[in-house]
Each structure stands twice: as C-alpha cells, then as structure tokens.
Amino acid sequence: MSEHQRSAHDHPHDGAKLTFEAKVLTVSDSVDAGTRADEGGPAVSALLADAGFLIVERRVCADGPESVALSLSNMAYNFWGLIVTTGGTGFGPRDMTPEGTVRILDRRAYGLSEAMRAAHPNGRLSRIVAGTRGHALIINTPGSPNGAVEMLEAIVDVLPHALSLMAGVETPHPRT
C-alpha cells in the first residue's frame, strides 16, 4: 500500500479520498519481441488514469501460461491495487492469459468477468477471468484496444469499492 493509500486507510473518517494504484500487463509475443507496437496497454492505462487510478507500472510479457503467471505473481507481490492484463484471452493457440492468471489467483471474481463479457456481443468469445491475489485485484481484458476499453468500462465504476473492501476500508455500497 502506498503512503497515500496508508494515510487514507488509517484515517477513513477524515474525508480523505482513497487513491488506488494500478499496474498494466500487456501479453503479446509480438510486442514482447518488439515487432509490433503496444496499443492495448496504453488504451487500458488511459482509461484507468481517467477513472482516477495512479498507473505505477506497465509491463510486457510473451504469451503463454508460465510467462503470464510469473509476471502477475511478480506484479502482485506486496502490491495493494489493481492489475489489468491486455491480450491473450481469445482462441488462438498462444492465447493462454486466463490459464496463467488462474494459476496464481487466490479467489475468483466471476461477477466482474461476466459483466465484462456482457458489455459487447463479441464478449461471448472472450475467456477473460478476474480474481484476487493477496491484496491485488487482477482482471484480464482482450488485446484489442477497443475491446479492452469497452470491457473495462463495464466494471470500472465498481473497482474502487472492490479495492476498498479488499483493503478493509468500510465504504458505502454503490447505488444503482
């Protein structure tokens, strides 16, 4: 937890607004090899920054369950916040981001991935997962910048509440 988060967490009744940190992992063989520009990572980062998250790390790894699991484990270690992956969630032979993610999750968050898939008709083709590892909330998004943004927009409004609950901060439940 960063100093600002600790301050807000330690004094939840002083009116301080809790600011959450976020990390973004782009999963792509071609981006990792430097043969294609990363478009998904910047799109996800921009949406999160616009929603008030502080982006503290952006990383790229190759496709595959081992590389995803290792990257996510490293990113989640001693981290209190949100980690969003982009890429590797489709039906291609190297699309194994969900498999790597599930390997390291402590708990699944089925409602988040279901809401994301429902945001667009092509969501039915997505294998995204969401869940927690320690104090980190991990969410997969597609590699398509538009798809990643659309799916993340479907849940970004509830993410601060989820992260507050994970941090033990009592907050009012969001109203619909």
Describe this structure in words.
- 40% of the residues lie in helices and 19% in strands.
- The protein has 176 residues and is of the alpha/beta class.
- Strands 2-1-3-6-5-4 form a 6-stranded mixed sheet, with helices on both faces.
- Helix 3 runs parallel beside helix 7 and helix 4 (65-76) packs across helix 5 (97-104).
Brief characterization of the structure:
With 176 residues, this protein is α/β, with parallel strands linked by helices.
Distance between the termini: 29 Å
Order of helices and strands: HEHHEHEHEHEEHH
Helix vs. strand class: alpha/beta
Roughly how many Å is the radius of gyration? 15 Å
Number of strands: 6
Physical arrangement of strands within the biggest beta sheet:
2-1-3-6-5-4
Output the number of helix runs. Answer: 8
Q: Helices, strands, pairings?
A:
Elements: H1 3-10, E1 21-27, H2 29-33, H3 40-50, E2 54-61, H4 65-76, E3 81-86, H5 97-104, E4 107-108, H6 110-117, E5 130-133, E6 136-141, H7 145-153, H8 159-167
Helix pairs in contact: 3-7, 4-5
Name some characteristics of this structure.
176 residues; alpha/beta; six-stranded mixed beta sheet; 8 helices; 6 strands; 40% helix; 19% strand; disordered N terminus
